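Comment thread on ticket #2218

A.B. wrote:
> Attaching the input chain for the structure job we discussed in standup.
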Amino acid sequence: MRLPTRLPLVQRLINGPGMMERSMIVRIWRGGPRPEDTEAYASYVEEIGLAAYRTTPGCQGAFLASRRDGDKTEFLTVSFWDSEESIRQFARDGGLLSGG
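C.D. wrote:
> Ran it. Output below, let me know if you need it in another format.
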C-alpha cells in the first residue's frame, strides 16, 4: 500500500532509499503551552514523551518539531507506528487509558 502523493515528506521518510515499502500509521500530536512554559514543555516532551515512544514496541520512530508565532510556540510530535494496537499499548503503559 502506497501513501497518498499529497504527503511527499512522509512518503520519502517511509519509502526512502533502502527502505522496504510497508504500511504504517503516522500519529500527530499538537500542543501549545503558555509562553512561560515553552522551555519546560519542550524538555518534557523530548526527555519523557519521545523516550517513551521510542521504547514502545511497534513505534518505528518519533520526532518533535516546533514553530514560534509571536509570543506563542506550537509543538508537533510525529510518531510512526506498526499498528493501532501498538498505539493503544503505549497509551495504556503511559497511563493515558484505563483499560482496553
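A.B. wrote:
> Thanks. Noting for the ticket: The two ends are 28 Å apart (CA to CA).
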